[in-house]
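Section 3.1: Structural characterization of target chains.
Under the original work plan, the team committed to producing a structural model for every single-chain target entering the pipeline before any wet-lab resources were allocated. The record below documents one such target. The sequence was received from the expression subgroup and is listed exactly as submitted; it comprises 337 residues.
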Amino acid sequence: MLRDACATGRLLTRAERDARRAEGERAAGTGTGLRGLIREHLVAAREVLAQLPTDRAEPLLAAVEQAVDAFADGYERAQQQAVRQEEAARREFIDDLLYGGSDLGRLVERAERFGLRLSQAHAVAVATGPEPYGDGYPVARGIEEAMLARFGNRRILLATKDGRLICVAPGDQPDVLAYFAKQAYGATDGGQVAIGRSHQGAGGVVHSYEEALNALDLAARLEIDSPVLYAADLLVYPVLTRDRQAMADLVESVLGPLQQARGGAQPLIETLHAYFDSGCVATEAARRLSLSVRAFTYRLERIHTLTQADPTDPQHRYTLQTAAIGARLLPWPGIPG
């Protein structure tokens, strides 16, 4: 092709360029590096150049430029298509893994391709931030680079799902998820990370993922602002809300009289939250509500009068605290939080 182009001084035809482009696509499929392939083009051009008169060099360079450009275009197109297919396969795998919507045997086979052994136990960490995150976002890339630099080729899966950052790690390596939580908290400018418990098998990944999501939901409803949440530490709350009607009855029965107070029940419920959240220390609870200790103590007395339950009495405290938690979870009396 080069000799003919040099003999006539013509440019490459469309058919010749298409042939080089198709050759580039085939070369990409073999996994051969582009640098070496371009070098082979230049070697072939040098061999032709050695056989040409000096005045024929210019047509040769033009033909080589066209040939290499078409070849590289085909190579890059094939690579981009392969990347898109890989990304689609990875996204489909992550969806199936986290939602359990695939044949178990096939899921286990696909997991090996992405570095997971689903016969082992795994735990899942989920991170949220002030904005949604997707694959390729600077935040996601930065965390991935930090994780790879720290743990190398450990069997870890990093992904994004519904705007959240996800890390799946072997259940016997809690240091991986702890490091992920640290990186995610810093990268998301103070976001929150929830870590599910370790569970066995493919279904265990789904279970751990759901635990982490539930922990984030509970933290939002209960106003828990800890940067890292462990599902194992929050198991009491699903137990409390398993019978929603019973919880609603408890809240209405115990806290219902607070609605008779001037200003409604909400200020007194906030008083209970501050009191229990501060470890039943009145001075600290008053500080959290920006009240004087005297004003706060008056509120506690008002709660005692209306409910006939004394927040400072250990015998009554558990009932009041359980009802206050229920008020947050329902929410009651209809005001979120």
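Strands lie at 121-128, 157-161, 164-170, 192-195, 199-200, 228-230.
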